[in-house]
Write a structure and sequence with these properties.
- By secondary structure, the protein is an alpha+beta fold.
- The strands form 2 sheets. Strands 1, 2, 3, 4, 5, 6, 7 and 12 form an 8-stranded mixed sheet that branches.
- The protein contains 11 helices and 12 strands.
- It comes from Mucilaginibacter pineti.
- This is Galactokinase.
Length: about 400
């Protein structure tokens, strides 16, 4: 891969690349729709992501090329930068704008990007591009940002420059990810614990439903509002700031305060899912993958029945996984209504699983999913130092 990228860089720019970087994508192993409720999520970095090769130029411009997109960009050094239509290189431009706004003096740079994260799959291709660009600029121009600074900077780019109102989990996971470790993260405080997660004989199968997620944004906002209604109802008798400030026993004692049955279901998912994350951390740390798989299935069932964000495509993947003895667990991951599911599959049975789930899904849905295999990998870094 590295050799091919260097050849392509030479072809584009007629010179050698001087630096190479990599930032992964991420999946959330468990803890869905918890980040905006003050609870715990458990993402991990995956072993595919975004590669970036760079070399300085004397022309006072940033040149953007990608092996994934035909569009190219040449942007002169400026005191302020704005979006360039709907181009993919708005993500690195946004990062450059943030560095410039912070008073860092940047110089001309030729950049070549290549990503092997499926676009639009919910595996954080945008966060991966933002973070790898920020890491590279910080390294090349000695800007002195910490890793946490880069996380916050990249989230700001996504929210304020790109205009997507996302949380901080994606940028955090691709920056702080560690090989064979899941990150149990509080998205509110950014406190986290790296949980040993050696998958042993298993691999992480990522099943992209290939369904466009058109409903995700509107339904996401609806769920946020419903959780706020549940919180407001509970605050009549409880001194809490978030739904996840209470455990299941407390919730059951005060659930009568929530009179809307739909809102009650949403709150029940959130509080139980937060507890599942804690149980999942214990299962992974003790290498109990059967228990972790059981919690994955329970998470999916809750997202389907209580939170109602899965849909027939994601349910079909989970439904098939339960019939396969080589699968320990499966669940939807991400906002829902399309995107990806994940499954814990025995490595020596992965090819058979991939073929069988594709056939089953296609027979039910009418078109094929895309299936990928990953391990839990490292976060952003110099390409030579990121050994996944």
């Amino acid at each position: 891969m590295k050799h091919t990228l260097h050849q392509e860089f030479n072809k584009f720019y007629n010179k050698e690349a001087e630096n190479a970087y990599f930032s992964p994508g991420r999946v959330n192993l468990i803890g869905e729709h918890i980040d905006y409720n003050g609870g715990l999520v458990m993402p991990c970095a995956i072993t595919f992501g975004t590669y970036l090769l760079t070399a300085p130029n004397e022309d006072g411009v940033f040149r953007f090329r990608s092996l994934n997109f035909d569009e190219t960009g040449t942007i002169p050094l400026q005191t302020s930068y704005t979006k360039e239509g709907d181009n993919w290189f708005n993500f690195p431009i946004g990062v450059i704008q943030h560095f410039t706004k912070d008073g860092h003096e940047l110089k001309g740079l030729d950049l070549l990007f290549y990503g092997n994260i499926p676009i639009g799959s919910g595996l954080s291709s945008s966060a991966s591009i933002e973070v790898v660009t920020a890491f590279a600029l910080n390294d090349l121009f000695n800007c002195g940002y910490s890793k946490l600074d880069l996380v916050k900077l990249s989230k700001s780019v996504e929210n304020n420059f790109i205009g997507v109102n996302s949380g901080i989990m994606d940028q955090f996971a691709v920056t702080f990810g560690e090989k064979d470790k899941a990150l149990m993260l509080n998205c509110d405080t950014l406190d986290y614990e790296a949980v040993d997660s050696n998958l042993g004989e298993y691999v992480l199968a990522i099943i992209n439903t290939n369904k466009p997620r058109k409903l995700a944004e509107s339904k996401y906002n609806e769920r946020v509002q419903e959780c706020q209604e549940a919180l407001t109802a509970l605050q009549k008798e409880l001194n809490i700031n978030y739904l996840c400030d209470i455990d299941t026993a407390t919730f059951e004692k005060y659930a009568h305060l929530i009179t809307d049955t739909t809102v009650l279901k949403r709150a029940k998912h959130v509080i139980e899912e937060n507890e599942r994350v804690k149980l999942a951390a214990k299962a992974l740390a003790s290498n109990n993958l059967d228990e972790f798989g059981r919690l994955m299935y329970a998470s999916h069932d809750s997202l389907r029945d209580l939170y109602e964000v899965s849909g027939i495509e994601l349910d079909t993947v989970a439904e098939y996984a339960k019939t396969n003895p080589n699968v320990a667990g499966a669940r939807m991951t991400g906002a829902g209504f399309g995107g990806c599911a994940i499954a814990l599959v025995k490595g020596d049975a992965y090819d058979d699983f991939s073929k069988a789930v594709t056939e089953y899904y296609t027979s039910k849905i009418g078109y094929a999913p895309s299936v990928y295999s990953s391990l839990i990998g490292n976060g952003v870094g110099l390409l030579s130092a990121v050994v996944n």
